[in-house]
Recover the amino acids of this structure.
């Protein structure tokens, strides 16, 4: 199991500072403090995080390819959002001491996970048929993303990582809504 330390706080308490413990403020002197809470993540949570990083990369890479093909702004906008999702997950992984170089430095369309590589290739082939097919691929990506993110939230429940996943879930719901609006 991997361990990480998360820092919270905003007030430092120094009891008995300066030798006076009976001041009106209870002997506390204000300042900035850090409360350190140790969180232990299971191998399952870490494996899920790695998968989610690549899934966010897949979404961004597909949308960038479709933007180049069709020039639709929705693909550019959502690709930018997916890049932010990717960056948020990379930050979480790096905070846990995970090596993320293989994801950060992989070329667009290249994935470590064979299943995601096959999915990317299939989605690009399908979306290359027409702009409608590309929009349908976008909706399919966001639907899959939401299912996978919800599962990731369950295994990381009560952690900072789960909070990041919650934000990604809300973003994916917005993306799905945008694709469905154009398909309607």
């Amino acid at each position: 199991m991997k361990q990480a330390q998360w820092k919270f706080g905003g007030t430092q308490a120094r009891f008995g500072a300066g030798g006076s413990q009976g001041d009106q403020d209870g002997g506390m002197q204000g300042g900035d403090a850090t409360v350190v809470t140790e969180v232990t993540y299971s191998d399952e949570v870490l494996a899920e995080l790695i998968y989610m990083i690549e899934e966010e990369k897949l979404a961004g890479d597909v949308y960038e390819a479709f933007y180049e093909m069709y020039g639709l702004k929705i693909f550019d906008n959502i690709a930018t959002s997916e890049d932010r999702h990717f960056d948020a997950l990379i930050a979480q992984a790096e905070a846990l001491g995970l090596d993320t170089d293989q994801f950060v430095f992989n070329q667009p369309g290249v994935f470590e996970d064979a299943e995601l590589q096959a999915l990317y290739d299939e989605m690009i082939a399908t979306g290359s048929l027409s702009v409608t097919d590309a929009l349908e691929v976008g909706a399919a990506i966001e639907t899959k993303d939401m299912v996978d993110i919800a599962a990731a939230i369950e295994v990381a429940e009560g952690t900072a990582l789960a909070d990041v996943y919650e934000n990604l879930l809300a973003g994916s719901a917005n993306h799905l809504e945008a694709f469905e609006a154009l398909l309607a």
